[in-house]
Amino acid sequence: MSVITLFGGTFCNQDDVVEAVQAKTGYNRISDKDLVTAASRLSGLSENRIARAFSAKRSVFDRLGHENRRAIACLKLALAQVLAGDHMIIDGFSGQLIPQRVTHVLRVCLIADMKYRVASALGAHPGSEKDAAKRIARQDEGRAAWMVTLFESSDPWNESLYDIVLPMHETGTAAAADVIAENSGKKVIQPTRRSRKAVHDFLLAVRVEETLMNEGHFVDVDVRDGTATLTIHKQVLRLGKLEAELQDIAGRVDGVSAVETKIGETYHRPNVYRKHDFSLPSKVLLVDDEREFVQILSERLVTCDIGAEVCYDAESALELINEEEPEIMIVDLRMPGVDGFSVLKKVKETRPNVEVIILTAHESRHEKEECMRLGAFAYLQKPVDIELLSETLRRAKEKIGLESEDKDIHAE
Questions:
Q1: Cβ of 321: how many Cβ atoms within 10 Å?
Q2: CATH number listed for the domain at residues 193-263
Q3: Alpha-carbon gap, residue 83 to 411, rounded angstroms
Q4: Are 80 and 35 in contact (CB under 8 A)?
């Protein structure tokens, strides 16, 4: 039997349509939340980090987009495993990840005019029409960002992406469900040997992509009949060496019979390919009121492949960590207002897994002892040597990894 994917605008009655289709077909519903949970279990990444891929708002630490790509790869893995089955409705963003050559998928888009959507929004969230329109615009922004990520097109309702586009302001729930159920049973949507093979290739491509990412390489992967094609989008000084390394890594994945490499359309743009070093942290938050110093330090860390973001006061930093998940914070001890001691204490109370490195221009044995007692990972003096700081960050990342492994062992 076929698979149905439903993607649409908010306040287009999607939940009711899904329930009606379920009643008619007996298909199981698989939501984005279900796939995020499965992806988290498979990868070890937090559900929040994976779900953020659906958001228009990127993490401030993810300048290179690596975290977003890892999240999407995890979602693909969970989705590819689900596609081994049938009789399902994949409801939400995730269905867009299924390759077009998987032909036993009925791709449905639900959309409506603004008048209909505003009325639906007001029914769910009483208020003004203006507020309802703003809510819809914000949520559509997330859908547009998702489409840009996947297809480099900001139009979520592009008819070429779907088999059926249903205007809900003209089509009632029951009629929409009838159309979807009827078309899902058509012969052209039923699984074929070729379509099943495309699902297998999709799963293998995701496994190759995940293996390459774990080695620090971020390239596009496509698999056809066991042959993996790797596309390099950024220039590299020694292309032949990189190709050989990529081919060696991908070739070790079970099921890959051959590996080819090619350069992408953006290869000749002014950017440089760089292998990611996972022994270094990718989310470092610098907190210091000395703007010039902390900006220079941030730039130097970035050149060392360490993802860094800056806050110029403690209040902003404490607010940021409520939204983001920094691995490590580098905090100046003496700042106007809330000082480094207070930041350290607050962070260790609310986010004990975040390692904190203290910087100070006025070294004091008493202050050092107090910082270490409060849970600081290290206490360093300004101006800090970048190599010493990099090594300290590496050791802090290693500690985070060991503690994470211990938690996994105890959980088992």
A1: 20
A2: 3.30.70
A3: 29
A4: no
Distance CA 283, CA 328 (A): 7
101 token code pair: 């050559």
Q: What is the pLDDT of residues 270-322, one digit of tens each?
A: 666 667 677 788 889 999 999 988 888 888 887 777 778 899 999 999 988 88
Please say whether the beta carbons of 275 and 301 come within 8 A. Answer: no
Report how far apart the first and last C-alpha atoms of the chain are (Å, whole number). Answer: 37
- Among residues 290, 281, 368, 369, the alpha carbon closest in space to that of 332 is found at 290
Q: Enumerate the β-bridge partners of residue 181.
A: none
Alpha carbons 66 and 68: distance in angstroms, whole number: 5
Bridge partners, 382 (sequence order): none
Report the CATH number of the 3-189 domain: 3.40.50.300
Domain boundaries, the chain: 3-189, 193-263, 284-411
CATH 3.40.50.2300 holds for 284-411: yes
Helices assigned H by DSSP within 26-97? 32-43, 47-51, 66-82
Q: How far is CA 140 from the centre of its chain?
A: 18
Q: Which two tokens stand for residue 366?
A: 């008493």
Pairing of strands 328-332, 258-263: unpaired
Residues near 246 by beta carbon (within 8 Å), at least 6 away in sequence: 212, 217, 219, 230, 232, 259, 261
Cα–Cα distance measured from residue 378 to residue 355, given in angstroms and rounded to the nearest whole number: 9
State the Cα–Cα distance between residues 381 and 367, nearest whole angstrom: 12
pLDDT tens per residue, range 331-390 = 999 888 888 999 999 999 999 999 999 999 888 899 999 999 999 999 999 988 888 998
Same fold, 3-189 and 284-411: yes
Which residue type does 274 have? R
